[in-house]
Each structure stands twice: as structure tokens, then as C-alpha cells.
């Protein structure tokens, strides 16, 4: 019996239930993944016990000689993985505080910025009105072209010229096409703006060379570490040296206190894992899987926004099926497929009741699933969404999901 089981059976049971859910469900939320058991081991280590405000070799507390080694290693590996000499800060607690720190460092309250609208695929922290970014800064927004459902760089350049933002944010949480950082650079140069790339979703793909890199184009790059990078919850900020001092100060003491050293160690581990040649193969397979999933969904009569994908995710428009994203999320959950409802570009619905669902392949690819399984999964999804009132379709889908998940154990969950 584990110590946790003995001391706190209630929490133990909840963790076991979640473990079972993660093993038995097909996890298709594009921002989720399975961290390795080694990453989880570091998260549960004694590094949790230490305070180390400040930065490596310049701390406000004693006893940080080993913590410094952890942070140095994380920084060294981050530079190696992304082949960059940018300054790196590995302390942000997660993606939102990382983005906040960049804005706090480079903008004054009320300054103009430009980002992708949330309902077009951007992120809350890219200037949405309910978020600190939209409250403290004056964000203008760009979206995708109504017809192609892809970024229209000429249009973004026009918006940039009109709005004259001090900072342009590129990057998305629901955009399935390649992002041209070189085109964004040109747009930023055209108006003398700073360019920030939030690569949280595609960081693993960039590290593996299956998506173009923002390094050399963007002045600042932020990323979380738990999505395609497959590490712990956490984030990193990379920047050109001229912004380093201000960004470091904005992270600590500007926005945060002591860094989460157990998290930093786990980030170093995941970066080490991503440096292995097997990670390149993994990232390549994520994209292949997403493309096959998108193709088969289309073959089954589902509408994929922008007609396909270049990365790890795809967005289904459910309006032709006359069901909402919320209904689809619930239906698929009933058969053991976890997805999230999502706005589609120019959605007539609301964020809580949107017209789409977002599907992604990072987690199922971590389980070792390949094209064959993607075809099957697309067929199950299409059958469920097209026959939502047919009990026998749902029952068959439950069994089909069980068959697939049994064959592919979850890494990091051994029992
Ligand atoms: N929640 C993340 C996502 O699902 O994309 C973004 O913060």
C-alpha cells in the first residue's frame, strides 16, 4: 500500500480515478500530453522544498548551490534544443505569467499591441478583454481569412500599419497551419514593432524541426513546456540580449516570487528527452497522425476548418451536423474520447457554446499510435457525431475505444 493511500485515502482515490481515466480514454485535447515517469519523479522530489528567489548564482537565500546547477542545466539544454544564443528565463510558473512578464517588461500600461483574436485561434493572453493583457494594454486583433481560414499576411500588415502597435504577438492555440515567422518579422519591421512569438502549442514541433523556427525572427519567444514538448507544467521565455534584463526583472521580482525548482528540474529533464533522436521521430509522427486524422475525418464527411493541418491539431466545424461543440464534447466523452469544444473562425456561437471541437495528436502519439489508429479514431468520431441518437453506435464506439487504448499503454503510468 502506498504512503499516500494510508495517510489520505480520499486524495489517493481521486488520483487513481484520474489515472484510470487517462489510461482508458483517448486523449485528443491538443494542448495535453503524457509527461514521462522521470519528469513526474522530479516534480515529486525534494527540490519542492527550496526557496531560491533571484537567478542562478545571485540568490536572496542561502543553500542554493544545487538549485543553481538545476537552473543552469535547464538553460543550457533550452539553448541547445532550440539552437539559439537568445537569453533564456526558465522560471515562469506557466504560459500566462510568462506572457504577462513580457508585456510588463516591454510595454507601458496603455501601450498598443497586436495579437490574434481568441475566437480566431489566439489565446486569452493575446489581448482578450477579460484577461490582464486586454485590460492593461490596448490590443488590436487580426484573424484568419474568411474563405481560406488561414492567416492573411497582407491583411495583418495593413492592420499593423493602421494600428501601429509597439509589440506584435504571433502564435496561437487553435490554428492548424504553419505560421510564417519570417512574414511576421517583415510586418514588424515595417512599423518598427517588437515581435513576440508564443510557440506554446508547437514548441515540440519546432524543436524537432518539423515546423519553422521563430528564432532569428522573433525578438522574444515564449512557450509552455507541457504541450508538444511533453514536460511538466511550466514555461520559458527566450529573448534577444537587449531585452534580457527587463524580462528577468519582470518575472522576478515583478510578477513572481520563488521559482518552482522541482518544476525547473523537470523542465531540464524534458529538454534532455527532446534532445534525443527519438523525439524527432515522435514530433514527425504527431504531424503525420494529425494529417491522417484530418483526412479521414473529411473522408467521413466532417468539415475540417481550413481543409487540413500542418501541425498537431485540427478543428472540426460541426454546423453542418447541426450539433454544437458542447454537445459533441459530451457525446465523445461518453464513448471515451476526450476533446474540447472550441470556437471556429467567424463563429455564430459563444465560447461556452461554440460550433467546433479541437482535436490534437500529441498525447495519442506518445502512446505509440500511428496512422492506422488515426483512421479508426476518425471513423469512430464521425460515427458518433453523425448518429448521436443511436444507442448501438455509441455502444460500438465504447468498445472500439477500449480495444485501442488497451493496446497502447500510457507512458508515465506504469500500473
Ligand atoms: N489551455 C491551453 C490550450 O488548451 O490551448 C492554452 O492555454
Question: Care to describe what's here?
Answer:
It catalyses: (6R)-5,10-methylene-5,6,7,8-tetrahydrofolate + glycine + H2O = (6S)-5,6,7,8-tetrahydrofolate + L-serine. This is Serine hydroxymethyltransferase. Its EC number is 2.1.2.1. Pathway: One-carbon metabolism; tetrahydrofolate interconversion; Amino-acid biosynthesis; glycine biosynthesis; glycine from L-serine: step 1/1. This protein has 415 residues and is α/β, with parallel strands linked by helices. The protein has two domains: 40-274, Aspartate Aminotransferase, domain 2; 285-407, Alpha-Beta Complex (Aspartate Aminotransferase, domain 1). It contains 16 helices and 15 strands. The strands form four sheets. The protein has a seven-stranded mixed beta sheet with strand order 4-10-9-8-7-5-6, with helices on both faces. Helix 4 (65-81) packs parallel to helix 11 (261-274) and helix 7 runs parallel beside helix 8. The radius of gyration is 22 Å and the shape is globular. The relative contact order is 0.15. The protein binds D-serine. D-serine binds next to loops. The site of D-serine has 4 residues, from loops.
Percent of residues in helices comes to: 40-55%
Q: For the report, how would you describe the main beta sheet?
A: 7 strands, mixed
Strand content: 5-15%
CATH superfamily of the largest domain: Type I PLP-dependent aspartate aminotransferase-like (Major domain)
CATH architecture of the largest domain: 3-Layer(aba) Sandwich
Counting DSSP H or I runs of 4 or more residues, the number of helices is 16
Structural class given helices, strands, pairing?
alpha/beta
CATH class of the largest domain: Alpha Beta
* Bound ions, cofactors and other small molecules, one mention each: D-serine
Mean pLDDT: 97
What order do the strands of the largest sheet run in, or round the barrel if closed? 4-10-9-8-7-5-6
Low-confidence runs of at least 5 consecutive residues: none
**Total number of strands:** 15
Number of domain units: 2
CATH fold description of the largest domain:
Aspartate Aminotransferase, domain 2
Outline type: globular
Radius of gyration: 22 Å
